[in-house]
Amino acid sequence: MLLMTSQIALYQEMGILSARMVDAARAQDWETLIALEHSVAELRDTLSKNGDNDLSGTDLEHKSRLIQQILEDDAEVRRHTEPWMEHMRKFLGSGAKQRQVERAYGASF
User: Fold this and answer.
1) Is a pLDDT exceeding 50 seen at residue 109?
2) What's the CA gap between 36 and 44, in Å, rounded?
3) Is-contact 43 13, C-beta < 8 A?
4) Per-residue pLDDT for 4 more than 60?
5) 106: region left, alpha or beta (phi > 0 left; psi from -120 to 50 alpha)
6) 21 CB contacts (<8 Å, ≥6 apart)?
7) What is the SS3 string spanning the chain?
8) 55 and which of 19, 24, 59, 73 could share a cystine (Cβ 3.0–4.6 Å)?
9) Is the pLDDT of residue 79 over 60?
10) Is the pTM of the predicted complex or chain greater than 0.70?
């Protein structure tokens, strides 16, 4: 039962962190968002190393609800980060194209 409880506890901690990730994304606090994502990744790695334990029906339902909330939080984070990421892709892409043109034709054309 200790392993089952700790597995649920890990999912609960991931849920808490994913909710904080939503708050960070809404606030456009990218540094906090990245730090939280690293923490979630560590928990995910711990879960994958320990494998899936046979959970009771109640624990399995609880795990399912936690995972669903984490996925909903992930979608919300993406809703806030994707526009910023697209802007950065365009910004970085235009800089790379400009450097290619400058290399091809010289800095003053």
Assistant:
1) no
2) 12
3) yes
4) no
5) left
6) 33, 36, 37, 40, 73, 74, 77
7) CHHHHHHHHHHHHHHHHHHHHHHHHHCCCHHHHHHHHHHHHHHHHHHHHHCCCCCCHHHHHHHHHHHHHHHHHHHHHHHHHHHHHHHHHHHHHHHHHHHHHHHHHCCCC
8) 59
9) yes
10) yes
Give the whole-angstrom CA distance, residue 92 versus residue 86. Answer: 10
Fold classified for 2-104: Methane Monooxygenase Hydroxylase; Chain G, domain 1 (1.20.58)
Mean pLDDT of 22-48: 95
User: How far is it, in rounded angstroms, from Cα 55 to Cα 29?
Assistant: 37
Take residue 35 and report the two structure tokens written for it.
């730090």
Tokens of 6: 């700790």
- Segments making up each domain of the chain, as ranges: 2-104
Q: Is residue 5 over pLDDT 60?
A: no
